[in-house]
Amino acid sequence: MKIEYQPIGIVHSPFMEQEGTPIQPSRAKNAEGTVEVFQEFVEGLSDLDGFSHIILLCHLHKTGRHRLKVVPFLDTQLRGLFATRAPSRPNPIGLSVVELLNVDGNVLTIRGVDLLDGTPVLDIKPYVGEFDDRARVRKGWLEHVQRQTDVADDRFQ
Which of 14, 36, 145, 149 is the 20 to 30 A CA-CA neighbour of 27? Predict the structure, then answer.
């Protein structure tokens, strides 16, 4: 089966290269950017401005080939790809929960951006704590991680 998606917009961010880009929105601190939504999808932005956070689903357009075993950013041990958030995936789809600061026509101003400039946006969804938060969450191997880092290095190029 072949699946094709059409981008609905593009991310504009201060990050031009993978190296040095925050590894998750929670590590992006106050990094701001914008999402430029293409004109044919602007009507779909109605009522979005009432939400404080949104979920961006994106095509990670600069990832390298995928590997089923990777050394994740926060670890030194080889792990199964699907037990990590490594960007080099069979289907390089990224998920970022970012703060929505403003909606102005077709431009969304966001904070906590962890995406490269030019990243194609596949979908936008409102973050709803009632639906998205979970209690009693297990973090697998991450529960024992000692090393901390905020930005990407070159291991997935």
Answer: 36
Specify the pairing of strand 93-104 against strand 79-80: unpaired
Longest dimension (CA), the chain: 46
Burial of residue 102, with CB atoms counted within 10 A of its CB: 0-12 exposed, 13-18 middle, 19 or more buried: exposed
Q: Do residues 113 and 96 lie in contact, with contact meaning Cβ atoms separated by under 8 Å?
A: yes
Residue 153 in contact with residue 85, Cβ under 8 Å? no
**Radius of gyration of the chain, Cα coordinates, nearest whole angstrom:** 16
Its pTM stands at 0.82
Nearest to 101 by CA among 42, 49, 28, 30: 49
pLDDT in tens, 123-134: 999 999 877 676
